[in-house]
From TrEMBL:
Signal peptide: none
Any one GO molecular-function label of the UniProt entry: nucleotidyltransferase activity
Polymerase nucleotidyl transferase domain ranges (all copies): 9-77
InterPro entries documented for this protein: NT_sf (IPR043519), Polymerase_NTP_transf_dom (IPR002934)
Organism: Tectimicrobiota bacterium
Official protein name in the record: Nucleotidyltransferase domain-containing protein
Amino acid sequence: MSETLLDEIVRRIVEVARPERIILFGSAARGRRGPDSDLDFLVVKSGVSHRRRLAQQIHRTLFGIGVPVDIIVVTPEDIQTFRDKVGTIIGPALREGREVYAA
């Protein structure tokens, strides 16, 4: 994945969501992205009551980007609550991920 593509994805996410942080995680963050891999992003935003709705808005703005993207919207409170809970994606995303945006 090129840095230009990553920059464009981040720009579009920021434009729609105005998050505090964006973390790229999964195979792309580990440098092991294959031709069929998607890009996984943890989008951190305060005060979001409808996480799924915001994720859908982000997906719409990424239409046509040319790669599959997976968006997970969380709040800072979610991070505090679930970062050490087994079975959630937040902990691994924070440990293995790469912060690509911070407000």
